[in-house]
Write a structure and sequence with these properties.
Elements: H1 2-10, H2 15-41
């Protein structure tokens, strides 16, 4: 579901831009997850 949405959003872009966009989203999610883990450890 989420992957389909991401694919639909990135379709108009070139392959390089779509890949960069996906990496950016993944890095943001990963950072949020790490921040949440650090917050829960306190």
């Amino acid at each position: 579901m989420q992957h389909e949405l991401l694919l639909n959003i990135t379709t108009p872009f070139s392959a390089v831009n779509a890949n960069t966009f996906s990496m950016l989203i993944l890095s943001l999610i990963e950072n949020d997850f790490l921040n949440l883990q650090n917050f829960l450890r306190q």
